[in-house]
Design a protein that fits this description.
- By secondary structure, the protein is of the alpha/beta class.
- The chain has helices spanning about 25-30, 45-60, 100-110, 125-135, 140, 150-160, 175-185, 195-210, 210-225, and strands at about 15-20, 40-45, 70-75, 85-95, 115-125, 165-170, 230-235.
- About 40% of the residues lie in helices and about 20% in strands.
- The model has no long low-confidence stretch (mean pLDDT about 95).
Amino acid sequence: MVTVEFDRLTVKPGFKILDIGCGSGRHTCAAYQCRQVTAIGVDLDFDDLKEARSRLQLHDRLGEHGGGIWALSTADVLSLPFKDSYFDLVICSEVLEHILSHRKAIREIVRVLQPGRDLVVSVPRYWPERICWLLSPEYAGSNGGHVRIFKQKQLISDLTSAGLRMWARHFAHSLHAPFWWLKCLVGPDRTDSSAVDLYHRFLTWDMMKKPRVTGWLDKLLNPVLGKSLVMYFRKEM
């Protein structure tokens, strides 16, 4: 499930791309398919990094890449092991809602980005996330430890105050919002709900088969139901 719309971005051969909090590697793999880039994924969870490695190795075996290279590393967003202005593109998808010191994380992210280059940030959208919190007091802790719900204006202010200029935004994953509401309604850690299992199978089918009708429906509903807020920024020169 790729949240970032790479078609919006200018990615040139030789670019170094950082995927912060890469998890199982969805955006690292998507970046690796760009022509002649270096795609680097970092995360604190070693098991997630192993899954990301397997996915990237599969891309290598299938030849589904742009001819560049990839690398993975354990790293903390509050102290990234890279020099200043090192990357041409940074992706930070569904990470900041997990971090207590999110403004410190933003400063560190901006530090490693070259001036004039792009940063893409996504977080859970306020009102779909708020419903999850209302339906289940256990949701925030079970879903990887969400520590806050961002309001759009405040997060944009935090990012622009760090030397960024927003040039685009959109919402994504409208079909996923009802899944999480249903999951919260029955209990986020429950594994024996046939309704949740059925919806999960539908989402998996949709991601694998990518039928036109659900793609059209997702885009149609995103402005209203989109679970993720996705924002595109450029670091000031």
